[in-house]
Design goal:
About 10% of the residues lie in helices and about 25% in strands. It is α+β, with helices and mostly antiparallel strands and about 190 residues long. The longest helix is centred in the first third of the chain and has 11 residues. About 15% of the residues are buried.
C-alpha cells in the first residue's frame, strides 16, 4: 500500500520509476533501523534509476592500417601490500621510442603477488586513473579496451585490499608486474 502511494506521488511529480523499484524501496524500508532513542528520523529513499557502469569511451573504428606495428614491454617490481584500504600503484614506463601519433592495438598484463587476500581488487589504467580496466579476476591477460588511444602515454597498475582490520596472514609480497603494449606506427 505504501509503495503504491509513493509511486502515485512520484507520478504526480512527473518522475518515472523503473519496474522493480518499488521492491527496492520496500527492501530499503524493511532494512533501515531506527536510531538510538527511538525517534524515527528516516526519510524515504527514492531510487530513480539503477546505477550502471559507464560505457567505455568511443574506440577509433577499425580501419586497415598501412603502417608498421611495434610493441614494448615494461617490467616493474610490485609493491608489498601491508594494509587494507590503501592504494598501491605500479607505474609502468614507456620503453624505447614510440613515435607521436602511434595508437594502441593490444595491451597485455601480468602481475604477481605471493597470494590474493580476500577483498583484493586490481585495475590496469592508461595515462591516469580515468581510463581503467578491471584485472582483479585475472593476474594475466590481454585486452583491446585501450585500442585507439595514444601509445606514448604510460600505464599504471592500481591494487588494494578492501575491508577493515589488519591483513589476517600479514603483509603480501609483491612480485614482478608487466605490461606489453602493441601499437600501430603512423605512416
Amino acid at each position: 500500500m505504501r509503495e503504491r502511494r509513493l509511486l502515485a506521488m512520484l507520478g504526480l511529480l512527473g518522475i518515472s520509476v523503473l519496474p522493480g523499484m518499488a521492491a527496492a524501496q520496500s527492501y530499503a524500508d524493511r532494512n533501515l533501523s531506527l536510531p538510538q532513542g527511538g525517534t524515527d528520523t528516516r526519510r524515504p529513499i527514492v531510487i530513480l534509476s539503477p546505477v550502471t557502469p559507464a560505457a567505455p569511451p568511443p574506440v577509433t573504428p577499425t580501419v586497415p592500417h598501412h603502417g608498421p606495428t611495434a610493441a614494448y614491454a615494461s617490467d616493474v617490481a610490485g609493491a608489498d601490500i601491508r594494509a587494507k584500504n590503501t592504494d598501491y600503484i605500479t607505474q609502468f614506463q614507456v620503453v624505447g621510442h614510440v613515435p607521436p601519433g602511434s595508437t594502441i592495438s593490444q595491451v597485455s598484463w601480468r602481475y604477481g603477488l605471493a597470494r590474493k587476500p580476500a577483498g583484493f581488487e586490481a585495475w590496469l589504467c592508461w595515462q591516469d586513473a580515468g581510463s581503467c580496466w578491471s584485472v582483479t579476476e585475472a593476474s594475466t591477460g590481454s585486452t583491446d579496451f585501450f585500442n585507439g588511444r595514444d601509445a606514448t602515454r604510460p600505464f599504471q597498475l592500481y591494487y588494494r585490499v578492501k575491508g577493515s582490520g589488519p591483513l589476517i596472514e600479514g603483509p603480501v609480497k609483491g612480485e614482478i608486474n608487466q605490461v606489453i603494449v602493441t601499437f600501430h606506427v603512423p605512416g
